[in-house]
Amino acid sequence: MRPRKLILHHKKRRRLLPYAPSEETTHRLKQMRSLASSLTSLNMEYSDDLTYSIDMAPRSANLSMHEKGGMQVLSKEDTETLAYRRAMLKRGECPPLLVIFDSCKG
């Protein structure tokens, strides 16, 4: 009889990248234009927090037990990056985002 082996599945680890402001004005404007046009075309409003509108999902949908593979714990570096980004937003500095279409997620 073979001994049983424990099989573990880990979620794919993602790393938050710190924001480095671009010195190139044209590149920065392109990023801001991308975000603004995406939000405007969908009649959306930017939010720094995860929010669901009432017609999208009930409040009960935002539970950690629904996460496949369990919740991912942020590393120390990712926590620092997130804190840095939130501090920037409090100072009124919005990090530009480039919105791209993902063929899998839409």
UniProtKB/TrEMBL annotation:
One GO process term, biological-process aspect: methylation
InterPro entries: ATXR5/ATXR6, SET_dom_sf
Keyword Oxidoreductase on entry: no
Key words, A-Z: Methyltransferase, Transferase
Alphabetized GO MF terms: methyltransferase activity
Record-given protein name: Histone-lysine N-methyltransferase ATXR5
